[in-house]
Amino acid sequence: MKISKILLTGIFLTLFHFISQSQVYKTIRTGQWTQAATWAGGNIPPANSNGITIKINQGHTITFNGNGAQHRVGQNVTIDIEGTLNINGWGGFQVGNNIEILIRETGVFRNGQNFSAGQNALYKIWGSFNLASVFTTGINSEFIIYNDGVFTNTSSFTAGNNSEFLVFGELINRGHNFTVGNNVSIIVEEQGYFHNQSTFVAGGGLDLLIKGVLENRGYQFQVGDNSEIYITDTGELISTSTMILGNGLLLQIEGLLQAGGWNFSIGNNSEVVIIDQGNLNIIHSWGGFFNMGTGSVLHLCNGEDTPPANVGNVVWIECDVLPVELISFDARQNNNVVELFWTTASETNSFDFWIEKSKDGISWEYIGSVASAGFSNELKEYTFVDYGVSEGLWYYRLRQNDLDGSFEYFSPVALEFSVFNSFGIERIINNGSKTTFHANFLKGAIISIFDISGRLIYNEQLNSDRSSVTFDSASAGQIIIFSYIIHDSVHTTKLLNSKNQSN
Question: Is 169 in contact with 194 (CB distance < 8 Å)?
């Protein structure tokens, strides 16, 4: 048997990739990155190598001193730091896509020269992550700062679009700027602390959830359009400097927002909702103000009947403490499915709706969910389709879930589901020897017909949509059992098989 040169090349490349992926480069002493004596077996981590692991062992301080040329590390590389890694010199240190950097409890990462990473980078920080020079990471990057972890930026930090930050420890920005792209998510957990002492800039679509503390005491904190900020009941946002929040903002305050300093500005067509025990505290200092743009509304959902002092240019309304005002909920049969329709008049702090169904109104089964508006003071219409329905009486109900994890159930509705109607049968014609059912039968459906004794007379799985089904019915008798299976749902009913019957 001959093996082609292309096949041999493919096998070699696959084997080389596998071997390369298994390579681990470990330090054995403190030293320079580029010195063989620093590494086990004298093996310096090669530049531009993919799939390797670089391990800085505890107690070792490894220093990379750039000499003007950019150092490149390949893709799918893991850098596991239990000791200290210093990136110094000049020229730049670059890593490829899918990099993983682990800063262990005893680990320290410091960059004194430019550092850049590709997309899909993952940073897990249990120790100290210190940025003293320009640091850039691509789109879809993820940072997890664990309880004792500290991320400190004293220079210029940039993260690409769709990046995520999960802060259990400390995130401190005291550099020139901290910039993140569009559609970025930042979650400050209850024990987390985000301290901005300089300039923070986020693109549009920021999703900022504050369960812990966010302090803005720097130059400014700026957020792009169509962003959402939610301060939970344990959360605090304290600003003594400038905060500029873009148009179309949804700001929900269940905890504390204390605004002082020069100004706190919210763009046009924004919504600020003060929920439950939420507190908006305006400290009018240094000539500062709290200002909302044209078309913006402050909703008082905390029982107060007047807005906080020192709020400028604001339209405010009291709102119902109920998170969702449901004005209709209906279930309708449409051929072989059940369609659910519901409408809300207003929503506050809503997350989604769960749809549940029951045969007896006691035991309920979850069958799906629909995202809700979050906040709305206008009519919102929702639909859901249940494809898995059998004949009989069914109950449906809605569970509405809030952003804070609370929920409520709405009263159920009942529907008698008829298999006959679910087929949409228009006519049944029997000429004495054959019977034809006229209906809208769907592709993939399995049709089985039995006589009253259970004997199978007809069975077919449809390979296309059909408008009729015909079977030999001379020996079937006057009562037949019609079974229709579609979308894993079985529908069975008895039908009268007599001449010239129509329906």
Answer: no
Structure tokens at 328: 């209709």
Structure tokens of 65?
């001193």
* In the predicted structure, residue 327 carries a pLDDT above the cut 90: no
With contact defined as beta carbons under 8 Å apart, do 206 and 228 qualify?
Answer: yes
Dihedral sign (CA 239, 240, 244, 247): positive
Q: DSSP state, 141?
A: -
Which pair of tokens denotes residue 257?
């927002």
* Position 400, amino acid: Q
Average pLDDT over residues 49-53: 91
Q: Taking Cα atoms as reference points, which of 281, 260, 186 lies closest to residue 229?
A: 186
pLDDT digits (tens, 9 = 90+) for 403-429: 767 788 888 888 877 654 445 566 677
pLDDT, residue 408, reads 85
* 324-417 and 423-496 have identical folds: yes
C-alpha 25/C-alpha 83 separation (Å) is 14
Q: Determine the topology of domain 423-496 in CATH.
A: Immunoglobulin-like (2.60.40)
The 10 Å Cβ neighbour count of residue 423 is: 23
What's at 101, amino acid-wise? I
324-417 belongs to CATH 2.60.40.10: yes
- Residue 191: how many other CB atoms lie within 10 Å: 14
CA distance 214 to 200: 12
> Residue 101's closest CA among 91, 111, 92?
111
What is the SS3 assignment for 212-236? CEEEECCCEEEECCCCEEEECCCCE
Give the residue ranges of DSSP H helices in 132-194: none
* Beta-ladder partners of 326: 344
Task: Supply φ then ψ for residue 410, to 5 degrees.
Answer: -105, 160
Annotated domain spans of the chain? 22-291, 324-417, 423-496
Residue 365 to residue 395: CA distance in whole angstroms: 10
Whether the per-residue pLDDT at 187 is higher than 90: the answer is yes
Within a 10 A sphere around the Cβ of 497, how many other Cβ atoms?
21
Q: Terminal CA-to-CA distance of the chain, rounded, Å?
A: 69
Report d(CA 361, CA 353) in Å as an integer.
Answer: 19
- Residue 411: burial class (beta carbons within 10 Å; 0-12, 13-18, 19+): exposed
